[in-house]
Amino acid sequence: MKKFFILITIIFIPSCAPKPYYVKPSDWKTPESKDSVINFYSRFVKGWKIFIDPGHGGQDRKNIGIKKRVVEADVNLKVALYLRDYLTKAGAIVFMSREKDTTVSLQDRVKMATESGADIFISIHHNAMPGDETTFYASTWYHAVEGDPGFHPSNKDIARYIQRDLAYALRISGSLASFDGTMSDYLVYPKQGFYVLRNATMPAVLVECTFFTNEHEERRLSIDEFNQIEAWGIFKGLAKYLQAGVPKIELISDTILTTQKPTLILKVSDKSGLDKQSIQIKIDSLTIPKDHIATIDERNFSIILFTPNFNLNPGVHTLDVIVRNKNGNSSFPFRRNFYIVKQTGE
Ligand SMILES: [Zn+2]
Q: What parts of the sequence cross the membrane (predicted)?
């Protein structure tokens, strides 16, 4: 009788728990179809230096799922390693803040990213809502809010692309606190944001894939194939962002000038072309008016000429430029110094 009871238990108990719902990406029908997607995006991803930061780990393993099935640090690392595989296969150069269950301080994560020379920083996390087991959504975070000196639109561009494909891959929505699922880190820490986003020296986002405090989501997070799907969503979002292109700015005029209202020249390279309405140029934090800016379009690049509407004193000056391409993607932060020197013989 006892044996019979155990047998019944083994057969029926597992079937009582609902099978976690997830959908294999349609481009995973065969290993070849998966590879062909990676191959397609490699033309946009190749050569980009991506820093992946799996959150927590080592001594920091306190974030545990609602049914103790997963530790956030471990899931972050699994997703990060799969993301590294996809990006590496597509030709990106990938750096990691950790590849094992090791302790890495927030300061060291940022320092490692800076020293790696990475172009883009992606921190991978999973979210928690203590005391509320019903809440779960996907969110991708950027630093600060528009109008704040710490805000740069390129962070939000990357967040938008990753968020869209991640949410689709996981078949969950974003938070209703945000129209498109991207979130400012000021929502959590007003005027400060997250340490890694505030201090990153390159465009940076932080992904909170879903919640380990929801039982169904935690069950999904414990499935290896689901972790691959999470990484796939992030990979495709980032790849589509790079496909849309990032305008590259160069200051091609001299940086040592002798007049107080000099004309400076920028070259902007982008396959989709420059959105002329988007040009924002500041010298020493003062905006150059539109009627002091001219553009010339060439085949694969545009030239921007501009002259300040105020006199520049001799000494060092700071130039800040932001432009968007015709796909709506902003340039990365661009800041250069130039010098006004007194002409000899004056
Ligand atoms: Zn976390």
A: none
304-346 pLDDT, tens digit per residue, is 999 999 999 999 999 999 999 999 999 999 999 999 998 765 4
> Which residues surround the ion ligand 1 when the cut-off is CB under 5 Å?
55, 125
Note whether 218 and 90 are same-domain residues.
yes
Encoding tokens for residue 173?
A: 């929505």
Last residue of a domain, one of 244, 273, 296: 244
CA of 65 to the centre of ligand 1 (A): 12
Beta strands in 198-327 (DSSP E): 204-211, 248-251, 256-257, 264-269, 274-283, 286-287, 293-297, 301-306, 315-325
Distance from Cα 4 to the centre of ligand 1, integer Å: 45
For 113-149, the pLDDT digits (tens) are 999 999 999 999 999 999 999 999 999 999 999 999 9
In a domain, 11, yes or no: no
Q: Identify the domain containing residue 93 by its residue range.
A: 23-244
ipTM entry: 0.99
How far does residue 259's CA lie from ligand 1's centre (Å)?
52
Ligand 1 centre to CA of 124 (Å) is: 8
